[in-house]
Amino acid sequence: MENNLYIVPPEESGIRLDRAVAAIPSVASRSKAKKAIESGKVTVDGAPAREMSVGTSLTAGTRVEIRWNTPGTSKAWVKGRQQIKEAQLDILFEDESMLAVSKPPGLLTDSASRYQQKHRQTLKKRLKAYLNAQNKHPFIVHRIDRDTSGVVLIAKTERSSDALRIQFRDHTTTRIYWLAVHGTPRHPDIDWVDPMMWDSAQRIQRIVPPEHEAAYMARCTAKVLHTFRHTAILEVQLDSGRRNQIRLQAHVRDHPLIGERLYVPENWEPPFSFPRQALHARHLTVKHPKTGQPISFDAPLPDDLQTLEKRLRHHS
């Protein structure tokens, strides 16, 4: 144990964390100490030192310990975590069964074609290296659009994937979205119900007569959070969950999303521009695939949408 432990003596009170770690016999260098701290192998009085600055001052009697075999601290795991950080993915929750992340806009959840699989970066690709180090595989159990930000849930095992997919299929999950739209809805709370079908040739969702053989009755509840001058911020809770559902349902009610380019009126000239559809998967509740207990995840509004909301308030 002494080979992996350093207790700060009175005469060394105020020593930097990296120097204390370097004083451990099995470390013996500052560069090695820094890597050990960053990878999560070091504890200070039993607490992980990963979030501490290497220059943190330690008091006399502080116990600094290194555990070389700490799970999840291998070189591959550290590299995978760095890739997660570089991809601007925030981990909201993780255990042995699943992983919840906040996806940034502009990143596909998963590839839908061979071309995308070969040429496009996806959330699934970014997670592979991270989970490979844990001997796990990313199973995508639901998707959000490329330019939609927010919560995405990934299973780590096939059994967990099956249990979660059933919940999404049976619409027993709670999925809440934040969106900014053009126009001001007349009613603060209203159900949106529309028969729609996916046009695979045009890769677009369409409204169809309810008697159409491919019609699917899409449902959600929209709540107006704030109204501004010619714009509004809504919260939508999905009952069903179809591709592009919210974007199409907002459009057919003459309230296209701010930044929307696909589901807009013909010859649409928006009052002002925004680089992507203002849509964010804010909240998700599922039953844990192992325990069966409800578990919730919330993704904070990203910087671009916070800036947009301030802009709308200013213009009002």
Query: Which class of the largest domain in CATH terms?
Result: Alpha Beta
Total beta strands: 17
Helix and strand sequence: EEHHEEEEHEEHHEEHEEEEEHEEH
Distance between the termini: 65 Å
Assign a percent range to the helix content: 10-25%
Describe the structure.
There is one protein chain. The protein is α+β, with helices and mostly antiparallel strands. It folds into 3 domains: 65 residues, Structural Genomics Hypothetical 15.5 Kd Protein In mrcA-pckA Intergenic Region, Chain A (Roll); 96 residues, Pseudouridine synthase (2-Layer Sandwich), CATH 3.30.2350; 137 residues, Pseudouridine synthase (2-Layer Sandwich). The chain has 8 helices and 17 strands. The strands form 3 sheets. Strands 7, 8, 9, 10, 11, 12, 13, 14, 15, 16 and 17 form an 11-stranded mixed β-sheet that branches. A 4-stranded antiparallel β-sheet has the order 1-6-3-4. Strands 2-5 form a two-stranded antiparallel sheet. It starts with a strand and ends with a helix. The model has no long low-confidence stretch (mean pLDDT 90).
